[in-house]
Write a structure and sequence with these properties.
By secondary structure, this protein is an alpha+beta fold. 34% of the residues lie in helices and 22% in strands. The structure holds (2S)-amino(hydroxy)ethanoic acid (HGY) and manganese (II) ion (MN) (2 copies).
């Protein structure tokens, strides 16, 4: 049975993992930063070494194509993920999918296979969205969910825009994102949750991804003296913000709730120990596999903000930054993953994704599914993120088998 070159694949993965690590050992390669540029250029170098034709599109998505005279022009079988990271990140999120895809193509080429379809590998721009939002903007542009112009105008938390930053790191090409229409797409990814590791199951065949709703909330009260201002006279933006977080946790812990909510970023101003915060700006990330419940919780959040204005004598506004509905993947592709795992005697199970993924967007344009490999302890978006080498190699071999099957379908 054909298998990947595990040493080469893991060598690439750990080499990429060393890019963007600072003096304190924190790994950060946020989209369109100099660290991301180094990661991009490194992966492009590996794509060229593998003999892929490399192209860039107008929002910086990187494509590597392998086509032969016989299959040129047919819709490719595509794989891919992202290599941009969150802040103080692990080394597997996204990178495992890009580099396993590269390894699969390299293995197929070296084996002298002549697939009926070309193969494509994509590195999607700004999947994480921690610096510039929306997240998953590269794959969203390919899917036609946002125009190139609006994507390039994506605002950054640091006052930049995606377009200016991609230009600065020479990451812009001229390929039209919506020209990319593969026949099938599979993304390998670490689970980032606890299920596979807890069940000692090496392969997850991802069936669906939950919906995502991001908001930036601004609460304005009145900055005032922390000592002299009587409690009854306070218009405390910080307290109001705290009430929102408690409200959201209470919504999420109601019986039967399937929603999770996170306030990942918060800033008070003037942000001084002895000043009642006049302003609080914070983000809310709400996720749920049930679209109806997600909508109900969005409405409940807005209603709560309105009630806060009365109770706490503040003003509250919410700006919706991101909104993606839950998606269900193509059953045939999911089954292909399950069959490929079974053929290698690897235990596999269907599983839903709690994390947003580029596959969520690509599923709008072609039959799509994902392969999950275990995250030890379910930890991710953390330097403690870990997936064992053996699990990564198993996942890449399942991807190889699925690729061989679908590139000839
Ligand atoms: O936020 C997410 O779910 C993904 O990791 N970008
Ligand atoms: Mn990811
Ligand atoms: Mn991530």
């Amino acid at each position: 049975m054909l298998s990947i070159n595990g040493e080469r694949f893991l060598g690439h993965l750990h080499a990429l993992g060393r890019i963007g690590v600072d003096a304190e050992g924190r790994r950060t390669r946020q989209a369109a930063t100099d660290e991301d540029r180094l990661g991009r250029e490194t992966v492009i170098g590996w794509m060229k070494e593998a003999g892929l034709r490399v192209e860039l599109d107008r929002v910086g998505n990187i494509y590597g194509f392998w086509e032969t005279e016989e299959n040129a022009g047919r819709a490719p079988f595509a794989m891919g993920s992202h290599i941009d990271t969150v802040i103080d990140a692990g080394q597997y999120d996204g990178c495992a999918g890009v580099l396993s895809g590269l390894e699969v193509i390299q293995t197929m080429k070296e084996a002298g296979l002549r697939p009926a379809r070309p193969l494509a590998l994509v590195v999607f721009t700004n999947e994480e969205g921690t610096r510039l939002h929306p997240d998953m903007v590269g794959s969203l542009t390919i899917a036609g969910g946002i125009s190139v112009e609006d994507a390039l105008a994506s605002p950054g938390t640091d006052g930049t825009t995606l377009g200016a930053e991609l230009a600065r790191i020479h990451a812009l090409g001229d390929r039209e994102p919506t020209d990319f229409r593969p026949a099938y797409f599979i993304e390998l990814h670490i689970e980032q949750g606890p299920v596979l590791d807890a069940e000692q199951t090496p392969i997850g065949a991802v069936t669906s991804i939950q919906g995502i709703s991001w908001h930036e909330i601004t609460i304005d009260g009145a900055a005032n003296h922390a000592g002299t201002t009587p409690t009854s006279m306070r218009r405390d933006a910080g307290l109001a913000a705290a009430k929102v977080l408690v409200f959201l946790r209470e919504r999420c812990t109601r019986p039967g709730s399937r929603t999770v909510a996170t306030a990942g970023r918060m800033a008070f101003s003037p942000n001084a120990v002895n000043v009642i915060p006049g302003r609080a700006v914070f983000t809310v990330d709400m996720r749920c596999p049930d679209e109806q419940e997600l909508q109900e919780n969005e409405q409940a959040l807005y209603d709560f903000l309105a009630s806060l204005e009365q109770s706490d004598h503040v003003s509250a506004t919410a700006r919706r930054m991101v909104r993606f509905q839950p998606v269900v993947f193509d059953g045939t592709i999911v089954q292909t993953v399950l069959d490929a795992a079974a053929a290698r005697d690897l235990k596999a199970r269907p599983i839903a994704s709690g994390a947003g993924q580029d596959a969520q967007m690509i599923s709008r344009v072609c039959p799509t599914a994902m392969i999950f490999v275990p995250s030890v302890g379910g930890v991710s978006h953390s330097p403690k993120e870990f997936t064992a080498d053996g699990d990564l190699v198993n996942g890449a071999n399942v991807l190889l088998d699925a690729a061989c099957r679908l590139a000839n379908a």
